[in-house]
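WARN no homologs supplied; continuing
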Amino acid sequence: MRRRLAAVAAAAALALPLSVVGMNMAFAAPVFADSFDDGNANGWSRSGGSWSVVSGAFRQSSTGANARALAGTTSWTDYTVTARVTPIAFGSTARTVGVAARVQTSSNYYALVLTGGGSVQLQRVSGGTATALATGVVGVTPGTAYGLSLRVAGGQLSGAVNGVTLVRATDSTFASGRIGLVASYASAAFDDVAVETGAGPDPTTPPPTDPPPTGTCRVSGTPSGFATVDGTTTGGAGGPTVAVDTAAELLTAIARTGPVTICVHGTIALPAGMHDVASDKSIVGVGGTAGITGGGFNIGGPVSGATTPPADAVHNVIIQNLSFRNASDDSINVQMFAHHVWIDHNDLAQGYDGLIDIKRGSSYVTVSWNHTHHHTKNMLLGHDDSNGAQDVGRLKVSYHHNWFDATPQRNPRVRFGEPVHVYNNYFFYNTDTGVACQADAGCVVEGNYFENVEEPVTNTYAGPRGRCVARLNVFAGESGAPECSGTVQEPSAYYAYTLDDASAVKALVTAGAGVGKV
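OK structure emitted
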């Protein structure tokens, strides 16, 4: 679609497809749109940097300049500017990319920017000097597209990332002006720029005629493996069902006492860090687009040196059908004697530390039908060679029907747990190791499909040796041979299970693992 400028009345009939995540723009008239699909940036004035249209996006490729591209008219007052912004490289963690509103000159405007340090800022730039009016925490990963929305209405300013309002401020320095794309000593690509006029409601608040999200969701299926041993894992069954689509609602819900089923609508940007999940919770994504970004879930109490489980250890938690991206620490962390946890049908990628880590005496956990990708340190089971006092006799975990997709290591890396049951998973192009069984752990690795995995199964990877049994696996492509020795407790002593034929596992898992499959 080519850029369009028109009077408000004429623009009211303009059909304006927006790809910015989570935006609901029905409240006002569209007056401007540019998707750069016509291969040019006509109508944009540029200051600094190196600008060009590449593959249907307006790209600023220099990290050595304070770059601005401006469009629109100086008479615009109250409006919302949205754009899809993809940071490419930051000159330093303090450098920024984003959108601008009420631009009077290239040195005077408001801006909503992402920083290389992992924050979102609402700024007033006056005389070329940026003042942060409000700051929020958000995971920022170069190469990832973010939907940015900057709203200016009178003296009220607000900024949203991926449909979630994270920053607000009051400032009346600039009353009107053009829009802009800004990149301060950073390179970025900009696409799907649009302007809606009128004050309207906050861009992430649905219009009054839209019903709020309903709480109609449920956990699909039942767990198998260790999550069924010595009790079962039912999550929030028997309690109320609540719908959440903001960080505040989600954090309140996961901290509630008693059983609750929490239905997550859309992508929710959490503050950085790990957020505690209380016992008896089901956290379920609705549809195929629900997810978490910025922060992660902590299932278990604060770290201590205790060697016996407390009576109130966190337990009975289900996490299902959610995408996790850009976690500032772990995406999901299970620790401090947490037990009866089922992590099922999720899509996890691009975190900072582990995608799913289980440690510090936790047990009776099943990790099933998850797709992990675009991440190096995939999964730990047991965090340290010296933590035997908490871990020996615990860390009993089942991993089945997961897709470990080009995740180089920790698929999982295991310490102390026995038996750890790794069965019917698809391992693809794990360039370091598949299953690494160390520190006297006992692993049964069976019925898996390994494709181009350098060390599919090993008990000599690093540190003290473990014990492992590898049987009925397929080793395809350039996969190596398993390196296993010792005897291990049989999982069948704890629970019954049916093993799929390993030759069918690749097709089975790629078709069924991840979100939107339950």
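The chain has two domains: 4-197, 225-512.
OK
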